Amino acid sequence: MALYTETVMDHFMNPRNVGSIENADGIGEVGNAKCGDIMKIYLKIEDNIIKDIKFETFGCGSAIASSSMATEMIKGKTIEEALAVTNKQVVDALGGLPVHKLHCSVLAEEAVKSAIKDYYDKNGIEYDKSLFPDDIGCEGCHMV
Ligand code: FES
Fold first, then answer.
1. Whole-prediction pTM
2. What's the confidence (pLDDT) of residue 137?
């Protein structure tokens, strides 16, 4: 069996929603403790809906594919729906990732959460702090 599914290769070769958003409503930047790669997510939010989402990454192919898929899954959703998207759902939508690359998918989930937290903080919106642990890392990974 090939190491990467066709869907992973497609999102890696033609990533969706790459770039930045000027005057973004929320920006999240996280680093993957395991490999040092970095992910940045920009959100445009109107009426609690994620109207636009873009990402930039200095990460591996799996991180790019995961982020691309995550942005596609989150675009047009409410903030609450976006927060409920887990790295496991992203990996499932990609048709799977090799076990040693699962940690790469956590980067996208962490960056989305961090961008939403930034939006809440900037707008003085109250939120449940337990939804946003400082470092999701391996403990927050929903694969295990
Ligand atoms: Fe760093 Fe994949 S090896 S995110």
1. 0.89
2. 53
- 3, 35, 69, best to mutate for ligand 1 pocket (most atoms within 8 Å of CB): 35
* Domains parsed from the chain with CATH numbers: 6-140 (3.90.1010.10)
Active-site residue 60, yes or no?
Answer: no
Choose from 58-62, 68-72, 125-129, 131-135 the range with maximum mean pLDDT.
68-72
Q: What is the dihedral of CA 11, 27, 131, 48, to 10 degrees?
A: -90
Segment 26-66, tens digit of pLDDT? 999 998 877 889 999 999 999 999 999 999 998 899 999 99
Phi, psi for residue 54 in degrees, rounded to 5: -135, 155
Task: Determine whether the shortest distance from the Cβ of 32 to ligand 1 is under 6 A.
Answer: yes
**CB-ligand 1 contact for 106 (6 Å cutoff):** no
Give the pLDDT of residue 142.
56
**How remote is the CA of residue 5 from the centroid of ligand 1, in Å?**
17
